[in-house]
Each structure stands twice: as structure tokens, then as C-alpha cells.
Write a structure and sequence with these properties.
The structure is a single chain. This protein has about 180 residues and is α/β, with parallel strands linked by helices. Helix content is about 30%, strand content about 35%. The protein contains 4 helices and 6 strands. It has a 6-stranded mixed β-sheet. Strand 5 and strand 6 form a beta hairpin. Helix 3 crosses helix 4. The longest helix has 17 residues. The chain is elongated. The chain starts with a helix and ends in a 10-residue tail after the last helix.
Length: about 180
């Protein structure tokens, strides 16, 4: 019983770390149906403090996601796409007090076993900005946050695609323009 509860808790903790939490914000006065073409906004992308390889991975994933949605990459676009990324170290501490143990533990009452699990990971946040090219105004921003547990290039690329796809899934917003 003790092992099955520990396994269930471990699966829950690991699966919750794999999700990408997405929030969006946008200008409610904008008619998003007017935008058909895009290009990347180099000045904003150059400021992102991530490796050039990760920038390429992110931009390729954004391009692929937008093409699937019917947008076209263009030299004279309606909107510009910029990115910003940051990360921070997180610590996850969980305690499992299941079952009764043998012997005496001065830190636990009723001789319960105390299983404390500590894990450390990086949490990344990716911002994707859509800018009206003519007005030079931010019209939409998607922010994705999630765990970054990456051991190799293939897993890193898969995780970046997951971040981008979760964010781009919310674009364009479903609004009733009046």
C-alpha cells in the first residue's frame, strides 16, 4: 500500500511538472481577422538571453505553428513576432507520512514513517509577442511557464515545441469585435 501511494504521488508530481501553464493578454479593440502574414521581430529576439540554438528552435516551432493556423511568413508582414525567455531554479518538497514504522523517531509522532522527497529543477517562461507592424503596438502576448528537465537535444527540442504549441493554441483570441 505504501509503495502504491508513493508511486501515485510521484506520478502526480512529475506529470504536474510536465504541463505548460499558459496565460494570454491582448488588445480587445484589435480585429485579429485582419492579420494574415507575419515575420520575426529581430530587435526583440536579439535581446532574448538564451542560446542562439534555442532561439532557432523556438522560431522554427513558432513558424510551424503559425503556418498550420493559416498564417503566411512574409517580407512585408501585417504583424511581427518577438520572443523573450527567462528561467529560475525551483525546489519541490513533498512529505509522505503513510503507514507505521518500527522503532522510535523523535521527529514523528506515533512512530509514523516520514518520507521526504526533495527535487530541484529549472522552471522556464517563454513570452511570445505579436506586434502590429503598421502601428508598432503590442496586440497579443502569450506566456508559457513550465518545468525544464532536459537531458539531451531531442528532449529539449520536443519541450520547446510543447511550450510554443501550447501558447500559439491560444492565438488568435476568440473575441467578438463590435
Amino acid at each position: 500500500m505504501k509503495k502504491s501511494i508513493f508511486l501515485l504521488l510521484s506520478v502526480f508530481i512529475l506529470s504536474s511538472c510536465n504541463t505548460v501553464r499558459v496565460v494570454t493578454d491582448y488588445d480587445s479593440k484589435v480585429d485579429f481577422k485582419a492579420y494574415k502574414t507575419f515575420a520575426f521581430y529581430k530587435p526583440e529576439i536579439d535581446k532574448a538571453k538564451i542560446s542562439d540554438l534555442d532561439k532557432k528552435r523556438i522560431l522554427r516551432a513558432i513558424e510551424a505553428a503559425l503556418l498550420v493556423k493559416g498564417f503566411t511568413k512574409s517580407d512585408s508582414p501585417d504583424m511581427l513576432v518577438g520572443i523573450f525567455a527567462k528561467s529560475r531554479e525551483k525546489v519541490n518538497v513533498s512529505q509522505n507520512n503513510v503507514g507505521f514504522g518500527w522503532g522510535w523517531n523523535p521527529w514523528m509522532m506515533n512512530n509514523m514513517n516520514a518520507n521526504v522527497n526533495v527535487s530541484q529543477y529549472s522552471e522556464g517562461t517563454l513570452f511570445i509577442d505579436f506586434i502590429d507592424k503598421a502601428k508598432k503596438e503590442l496586440i497579443w502576448q502569450g506566456i508559457g511557464t513550465g518545468a525544464l528537465r532536459i537531458q539531451n537535444r531531442e528532449k529539449k527540442e520536443k519541450r520547446i515545441k510543447e511550450f510554443v504549441n501550447e501558447i500559439i493554441a491560444k492565438f488568435p483570441p476568440e473575441v467578438n469585435n463590435q
